[in-house]
Amino acid sequence: MTDFKYDISDIMRIMPHRYPFLMVDRVTALEPWKSISAYKNITCNEPQFQGHFPAMPVMPGVLLVEAMGQAAAMFVALSVKEAPDRVPDGVELPDLEGRVAFFAGFDKVKFRRQVIPGDRLDMEVTLLRLGSRIWKVAALATVDGQKAAEAEMMAALS
Predict the structure, then answer these.
(1) Is 79 within 8 Å of 32 (Cβ atoms)?
(2) What are 41-97's pLDDT values in tens digits?
(3) pLDDT in tens, 60-73
(4) Which residues contact 16 (CB under 8 A, 6 or more apart)?
(5) Domain range spanning residue 56?
(6) pTM for this structure?
(7) Contact 36, 71 (CB under 8 A)
(8) What does the buried/exposed string (b/e) look like for 100-122 if buried means 16 or more CB atoms within 10 Å of the residue's CB?
């Protein structure tokens, strides 16, 4: 995987999400059509920590999955942008302009450690299967080299 810098301004030009629901702060590496590395800085001023849980703030598992899903969406968008001539054989990608990918399913979801304010959530997404409308990826989220969450995720293009 090659070093690749996409900062928050670049990400916001690609992703439809906005704060407080944008869960990718930076893309650090990309191997088009194979994998991506990205991260999210976890801060105590995020709204979920007001209620989950005030005396012991923990990032909800569903938001860990959302963050990995957004990294996967960045993977597809950046693969199309950076290597449109290397689309895998047999895949005919539709125009992505104005389209949104939605979760279609999850397998093998596991939560391994709590993620708390002050952590940096590092995400690795690897392509498992790519179709014209359905994509499947393996995602791993870590903090300080320790597994925080993992999942196989499917998304469908709307």
Answers:
(1) yes
(2) 999 999 999 999 989 999 999 999 999 999 999 999 999 899 989 988 877 776 777
(3) 999 999 999 999 99
(4) 100
(5) 2-157
(6) 0.95
(7) yes
(8) ebeeeeeeebebeeebeeebebb
Q: What share of the chain is helix, strand, coil (3-state, %, to 5)?
A: 25, 40, 40
Which structure tokens are listed for 122?
């590092």
Q: How many CB atoms lie within 10 A of CB 6?
A: 22
Structure tokens at 5: 């810098």
Kindly list the catalytic residues.
Answer: 52
Q: What are phi and psi of 65, to 5 degrees?
A: -65, -40
Closest-CA residue to 27 (of 125, 119, 117) = 125
Residue pair 88/39 in contact (Cβ under 8 Å)? The answer is: no
Domains contained in the chain, number: 1
Q: How far apart are CA 97 and CA 7, in angstroms?
A: 20
Tokens of 107: 């397998």
Other CB atoms within a 10 A radius of the CB of residue 67 amount to 26
What would the two tokens of residue 34 be?
């194979």
CB 24 within 8 A of CB 40: yes
CATH at residue 36:
3.10.129.10
